Amino acid sequence: MPQHKSAIKRVRQSIRRRNANRMKRSKMRTLFKKVLTAENKAAGETALPLAISYIDKMAKVGMIHKNNASNKKARLAKFVNNLA
User: Fold this and answer.
1) What fold is seen in the domain 5-81?
2) Integer distance in angstroms from the first to the last C-alpha of the chain?
3) Could you give the residue ranges of the DSSP H alpha helices within the chain?
4) Domain ranges of the chain
5) For the chain, how long is the longest CA-to-CA vector?
6) Residue 68, Cα to own-chain centre: how many angstroms?
7) What is the DSSP letter of 83?
């Protein structure tokens, strides 16, 4: 256990940030699944912009790398374009 006041504060901050990051990552994965589980192209096209927007936000704040974000967006777009 931390003894200094600043170390105690660091623990509080890291717990709060960890929980926030977990929620953001979970939301990103959920939006991913909504696109990948779309049965038809119309459903995929409605879910795709939401997922792309959120992926861009996560890349902007540093949650994921910008190249990783580009790869994810390309993969989702390719999946939606191949839906019948």
Assistant:
1) Methane Monooxygenase Hydroxylase; Chain G, domain 1 (1.20.58)
2) 57
3) 5-36, 41-60, 66-81
4) 5-81
5) 61
6) 11
7) -
pLDDT tens sequence across 30-82:
999 999 999 999 999 999 999 999 999 999 999 999 999 999 999 999 999 99
44 to 7, 55, 83: CA distances (angstroms):
47, 16, 8
**Contact criterion met (CB below 8 Å) for 74 and 32:** no
Helix axes 5-36, 66-81, angle to 10 degrees: 20
Q: Contact, 25 vs 63, CB < 8 A?
A: yes
In this structure, which amino acid lies at residue 17? R
Looking at residue 84, what is its pLDDT?
Answer: 77
